[in-house]
Amino acid sequence: MMSDIFLKKLRNIIGFDAIVSIIFGALILFWPTHSASVVAALIGLAFIAIGISHIASVFDRKDEDGWARVGNLVIGAVYFIAGVFTFINLYAATTYLFIIVGLLVGMTWILEGIIEFGSLKYYTQKGWAMFSALISIIGGIALLFAPLLSAIFLWQLLGASLLVLGIIKLLHFFAWKR
To answer: What is the pTM assigned to this prediction?
Structure first.
C-alpha cells in the first residue's frame, strides 16, 4: 500500500505537470511563431555553450595529440558560429529548424514503415501492420515534399495535444481524493 505522503506528492506532481502542459500547449497554439523562436533561441544558446566547451577543452587537455585538439577547436568554432548565426536572424533560424525537423521526421517515418514491412513475419495481425507501415511511409513522403508546412502542422498538433492532456491531468488532479 502506498503511503499518504507518497500519494500527496504524486497528486502534486500531476497538478504541476497539468499546469506546465496547459501553459506550453497554449503558447504553442496561440503564439506558434514566438514559441518556436524561443525553441530556436534555446538551441542557439546550447550551440554556443557546446562550442565554448569544445574550444575550452583545447586549452584544458594538453596531453592530447595535435589532431584531436585541432578537431575540438574546429567543431567548437562550428557550434559557436552556428549558435551566433541563430541570433543574427532568429526568424530564419526558426524556419530552418522547422524544415530540418520536417525532413528528419519524414525520413524517420519512411524508415519506420520500411522496417515494419520487413518485420511482417513477426506480427499475428499482418493487415494492421501493413496498414500502419503504409500510413507511415505515405506520411513520411508528405513530410519530405512539404517539410515546412508539415512541421508547422506537427507543432500545432503538439500544442493541441499538450493542452488537451494538461486539461485531462488537471481534472485528474481535482478529482483525486485528498
So the answer is: 0.75
CA-to-CA distance for 178 and 147, rounded, in angstroms? 47
The cell for 168 is 485531462
* AA letter at 82: A
Nearest 5°: phi and psi at 4? -65, -35
Measured torsion, CA atoms of residues 129, 131, 136, 140, in degrees rounded to the nearest 10? 150
31-90 residue pLDDT tens:
999 999 999 999 999 999 999 999 998 887 777 778 888 888 999 999 999 999 999 999
CA-CA-CA-CA torsion for 16, 19, 21, 26, nearest 10 degrees?
Answer: -170
Give the contacts of 51 (CB within 8 A, at least 6 positions apart).
76, 77, 78, 79, 80, 81, 82, 83
Count CB neighbours of 60 within 10 A.
11
What phi, psi does 144 have (nearest 5°)? -70, -35
